[in-house]
Amino acid sequence: MKFERTYSVLPMRSRRELSALAEKIFIEQGSMKRLGVRPDPLSRFIKEIGDRYRDNPYHNFQHAVDTLYTMAWLLNLPIFKKNLPDFHKYLLLMTALVHDVEHPGHDNQWEIKTHSPLAKKYNNMSVIENHSLAVSKELLEDPELDVFASIEEYKRQDILKLFDQLILCTDFSWHKVFLDELTEGTSRNKFDFKEKEFLSLMCRTLIKAADISNTSKPFRQAKVWGQRVMNEFWAQGEMEKKFNLPVGPLNDSSKSEFNSAQAGFIKFAAYELFALLSRVEEKSEEMVRALQQNQIIYERNAERAAASLK
Ligand SMILES: [Zn+2]
To answer: How many angstroms does the Cα of residue 211 sit away from the middle of ligand 1?
Structure first.
């Protein structure tokens, strides 16, 4: 299996197909085999995780497998292939697979605004990410599903600590803070993966990049993912209106125009992350170029949409 940046998981709809692809990605990427991880708990774990993803417009099992696929592609780029330890590669694949498990289909603000049991449980902090993390860890306690059982190189505590960091950093409310850290961490010319902090920074960059990489896919694919995100936001907006709650800025379908919202997301959130990633691995520049192209198309479409309203 040759990992391609432009590959699409969109034609795969059933959990069975997606689980089979996920397993294949783990096997073909290779880190798992080199670490001596047995395939049985992995296939059981993938099935269990797949069953726990909800059928949300965007945060569903297809998004998880798409993130996993792109992660495998990123890990195959020369600098990461050479410098990341197998343990980290395997953990990154695992994080990509589980990072949105049991996502409720609305955002953390909804949990907080409605004083949900989960918001209380996690003190309003990265509520949904903490929940996905807890679900994953609970599954790992079952020896039949423990995909980290045969890894001896690192202690279990170390594995789980890194796992926490990687899942929690997908909370987008910390995006700007993260970009500052990444700007600083990539400002020198030499990148030392043996340095613990830099290694951690790169792992977090990779999971964040894989998570939003669908914005850098060929336009037709990117647009489908974008529409799914907006459908999830707008459904939340309807609920917010219904319950007289403040409506989130992107959640009002009468105010947020699809093309402008997508162009804005690339311009203000995605572009910088991928541009900084390409400082470390220049081959990821193709993602930056694809993002720029998509932004131009969205902006043009937004202008047309605005003109047709006049
Ligand atoms: Zn995600």
So the answer is: 5
